[in-house]
Each structure stands twice: as structure tokens, then as C-alpha cells.
């Protein structure tokens, strides 16, 4: 991998990490187009590490909210008067909601890194999960905001987040859809999706760091990809929050289906290899 590859992948990661179109799926496609081995441990590790740039963008964008959540949660552990506050509850929601994806990610790590790193998987996941997103918008009541978020919501969203380990599903597409199924409004579902992304993707990046730096990918390329990912992701976050306030996530379905269908044609015709 050279610096050009790192920049391209950083842009792809930053643009797609928080949109419901699957960052892993797009990175897999981009890596294949760039001539990289998509199932190479160093490449999959690089993919996980540059996600930390996108997560840093979330942390900075929501710095005040995150600080209030952490501060109130810590105080609530020792002082009962803080335990009824929304930020204290949100701290527990993020912790509990992250547990399922952490367990599934560890147990099925080899399957995720090897068997699922196929463009066939990406193609069908892009199309099939679009149906879930459509159904979520169809039944969405959007009757509850962040003040009415519950532990049950966090558990359900956290469980559904596990599907995002399949390339092509989209972590934000999965979590926002789950929030809509639970009756949350889109902005609340999107904010919860952002908060849940922080521990999950940070852990994945740290866990895969040794593979990214232990192969043929240099430290410089990894840093460049991460920085580019951060810059692009920060702009994407601001845009997405404004977009979901006024538009359904079904707006992304035509693109997902078209890309999935194009991949199937390219793979079936032999123009592109699956791995």
C-alpha cells in the first residue's frame, strides 16, 4: 500500500462510516479496485485502524455531550442524586449496548476477517439490508426522543449492531433502523448510533493495530489514512445530523441496491473477483 492508496481509503472511510451505506463494504470494494488483497490481515487491520480517525471525529464533535455523560456516570456511581439524570442513564446504555457486538466480534473474529471478506457478501448485504431500512421507516412512529430512551432500547440496538459485522450491512444502517423500529425519532436514533460506535470501533482499531503495522503497510501510510478519515468524517457527521432531521434513511436505498446489483453483475461476469 502506498500513500495514494491510504488517502483514497481514508476518504472512503470518512465518507461512509456514518452513512447507512456500509463503510466496510465500500472499503472492501475500494481495496479491490486498488489491487490490494482484501483478505490480507494487514489490509483488514489497516481498515480497522483508520476507523479510529472517524471515531475521533465523533468524540470531538460530541465532546461536550460525551464529557457530560462520563462525568455524570462516574458521579452517579457514588452519589445517588445523579442516578436519575439522563446522562447517567446514557452512560449505562452505551456500556450495555456495546457488549453484544464485543462478544460476537471476538467469538466470530476469524469468520468476519476471512469468510465474510467477499464482495458477494457485500453485494447481497447491501441489497437485503435495504429491505430492513425500508421496513423500519414504514413502521417508524418517531414518538420518543432522547429523554424517553430506555435500557431496552439500548439492548435491542446493541444486538442489532451485531449485524453490522457483516460487510455491506452498515453499522449506522443497522443501529438507526433498530432505533426506528423501537419508536425513536431519527435524530435520537442517529445520536445513539454515534455514541455506540465509539467503544466498538475504538476497540476494533486497537485490537487490529498489530496486524496493520505488522505487515507491509507502513506507519506513515496508516497515519495518513487515519488523518484523512478524521477530516472527512467530521464533515460527514455534521451533514448527516442535519439530513436525518428532515429526510428518511430510505433515501440511501436506491444507491445501496444499485451498487449491490452492479457488484453482482461484475462478479458474475468475471470482471471482478470476489476476494
Please describe the structure with a list of short key phrases separated by commas or semicolons.
mainly alpha, globular
What features would you describe in this structure?
By secondary structure, the chain is mainly alpha-helical. The model has no long low-confidence stretch (mean pLDDT 90). It is 75% helix and 0% strand. α7 packs antiparallel against α12. The chain has one domain. The two termini are 17 Å apart.
Q: What are the SSEs and their pairings?
A:
Elements (H helix, E strand, L loop, with lengths): L2 H14 L6 H11 L7 H21 L1 H16 L7 H22 L1 H7 L3 H21 L11 H11 L9 H11 L4 H29 L4 H26 L8 H16 L7
Quick recap:
By secondary structure, this protein is mostly helical. It has 12 helices and no strands.
Rg (C-alpha, Å):
18 Å
Largest sheet: none
Topology order in helix (H) and strand (E) letters: HHHHHHHHHHHH
Structure classification:
mainly alpha
Number of helices: 12
* Quaternary form: single chain
Distance between the termini: 17 Å
Q: Label the overall shape.
A: globular
What is the percent of helical residues?
over 70%
Find the count of extended strands (DSSP E, 2+ residues): 0
Whole-number average pLDDT?
Answer: 90
What's the number of domains?
1
Question: Would you identify the regions where 5 or more consecutive residues have pLDDT less than 50?
Answer: none
Q: Note the beta-strand portion.
A: under 5%
Amino acid at each position: 500500500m502506498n500513500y495514494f492508496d491510504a488517502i483514497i481509503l481514508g476518504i472512503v472511510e470518512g465518507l461512509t462510516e456514518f452513512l447507512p451505506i456500509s463503510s466496510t463494504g465500500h472499503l472492501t470494494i475500494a481495496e479491490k479496485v486498488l489491487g490490494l488483497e482484501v483478505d490480507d490481515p494487514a489490509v483488514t487491520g489497516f481498515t480497522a485502524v483508520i476507523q479510529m480517525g472517524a471515531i475521533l471525529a465523533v468524540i470531538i464533535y460530541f465532546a461536550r455531550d460525551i464529557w457530560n455523560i462520563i462525568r455524570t456516570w462516574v458521579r452517579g456511581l457514588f452519589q445517588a442524586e445523579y442516578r436519575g439524570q439522563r446522562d447517567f442513564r446514557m452512560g449505562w446504555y452505551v456500556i450495555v449496548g456495546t457488549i453484544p457486538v464485543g462478544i460476537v466480534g471476538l467469538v466470530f473474529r476469524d469468520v468476519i476477517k476471512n469468510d465474510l471478506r467477499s464482495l458477494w457478501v457485500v453485494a447481497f448485504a447491501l441489497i437485503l439490508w435495504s429491505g430492513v431500512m425500508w421496513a423500519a421507516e414504514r413502521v417508524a412512529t418517531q414518538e420518543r426522543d432522547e429523554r424517553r430512551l430506555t435500557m431496552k432500547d439500548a439492548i435491542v440496538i446493541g444486538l442489532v449492531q451485531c449485524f453490522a459485522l457483516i460487510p455491506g450491512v452498515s453499522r449506522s444502517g443497522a443501529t438507526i433502523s433498530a432505533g426506528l423500529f423501537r419508536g425513536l425519532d431519527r435524530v435520537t436514533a442517529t445520536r445513539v448510533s454515534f455514541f455506540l460506535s465509539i467503544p466498538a470501533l475504538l476497540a476494533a482499531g486497537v485490537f487490529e493495530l498489530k496486524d496493520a503495522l505488522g505487515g507491509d503497510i507502513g506507519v506513515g501510510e496508516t497515519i495518513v489514512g487515519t488523518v484523512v478519515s478524521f477530516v472527512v468524517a467530521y464533515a460527514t457527521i455534521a451533514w448527516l445530523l442535519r439530513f436525518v432531521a428532515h429526510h428518511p434513511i430510505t433515501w440511501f436505498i436506491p444507491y445501496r441496491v444499485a451498487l449491490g446489483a452492479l457488484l453482482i453483475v461484475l462478479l458474475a461476469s468475471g470482471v471482478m473477483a470476489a476476494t
